[in-house]
Amino acid sequence: MKILVSAPGKTILHGEHAVVYGKAAIAVSLSLRTSLTLVTTEEQKVSVNLKSLNLHKEWDLTALNSYNLPEMSGDIISANDELIEQIMKIFNISSPEYSSDIEKNAIVAFLYLWIYVSKSYNVRSFFSCHVIVDSELSIGAGMGSSASYSVCLSTAMLMLCGRITPRLLPEDKEIINKWAFETERIFHGKPSGIDNSICTYGGALLFKNGVVSDILTNIPNINILLVDTKVPRNTKVMVVNVKEKLDTYPVVIESIMAAIEGITNESWKFFKDFNQSTTNTTNVKSLQELVDINQHLLSALGVSHTKIDKISEVAKKYDCSCKLTGAGGGGCAFIVLPSKTEKSEFLIKDLIEELERNGFGVWNLFLGTPGVQAEFQNS
């Protein structure tokens, strides 16, 4: 049996940093995806090949059955610190053969799902299988690569155990999302839940006070450029810097946060109006104006970067709007492109070429693409 799964990446449209203080944020799915192929086998082995990390691992099933794995109860097994520590110890994941925390976390995530989904739904019996994962998403660039990976893995393991079907009904996506959230804890410790949710459901979602408050699977077909500054971002440092500003100038910074939430709510209204319209025409200009305003507010919070400012400068030459996405201080920005016409095709080509000449990585993408998708094939 062969199982094929894919899940999109994501970007934050509006609400960065404000979401930390209970304000609303909008996440949208990207047309870049992670793909997973799972093939069952008669061999008494399980293996995973992570192409983006150039990492391949294999374990003997006979040996696995003899390990004293932590026993957990419940429909969704919590990926708590004790369980993660035990998996790392049993499988020697702290060994020198792993060159980074990303590699270690990716393997722990795989083992966590393979073991505990089996324990939950397959009468504690482990399946022999080979898993291959590839991704169009850059790792560590704020595109939701870990969440997309977590959603793909959760979906494949739940299908393997017969807990869900490729139809992916709403209740199936709900359980995928719960397992993927636990898997995200392995990567991020205390994830918000926004990344795994948008990678599961696709489209756009409104996130506030730690929960998804609204989801739209049908949003305007908006074309963007996602631009990688190639400057490593440090989310923790950016969040701390904003907190310091808030403590120093509470009235000023709270006003900025309220303004960012106002932009988020106005953008969500824009999406909902489109969703409910019979004509479904898109006013890209209003979206561009909101993006411009938000970038200025984020700059006032001190989370922009000279590279992001340069991307904005180039975008303005082509009458396009730009803002950072994610924590800032590097990472990625996005540029909202005009509606496609014969003239705009040349404009976009020239814009991409100028960005690339300045050393930036550029992807020409669409927002609001479908969430997780899956199918069975006869192998």
What does this structure look like?
This protein is of the alpha+beta class and 379 residues long. Helix content is 44%, strand content 23%. The chain contains eleven helices and twelve strands. It has helices at 61-66, 81-90, 101-121, 145-160, 170-188, 194-201, 235-248, 250-276, 284-300, 306-317, 342-357, and strands spanning 2-14, 25-40, 45-50, 55-60, 129-135, 204-208, 211-216, 223-228, 321-325, 332-336, 361-366, 373-377. The strands form two sheets. Strands 1, 2, 3, 4, 5, 6, 7 and 12 form an eight-stranded mixed sheet that branches. A four-stranded antiparallel sheet has the order 9-10-8-11. A hairpin with a 6-residue loop joins strand 9 (321-325) and strand 10. Helix 4 crosses helix 6, helix 7 packs across helix 8 (250-276) and helix 8 runs antiparallel to helix 9 (284-300). The longest helix is centred in the C-terminal third of the chain and has 27 residues, at 250-276. 45% of the residues are buried.
What's the short story on this structure?
Helices cover 44% and strands 23% of the residues.
Please supply descriptive tags for the structure shown above:
single chain, 379 residues, alpha+beta, 4-stranded antiparallel β-sheet, 12 strands
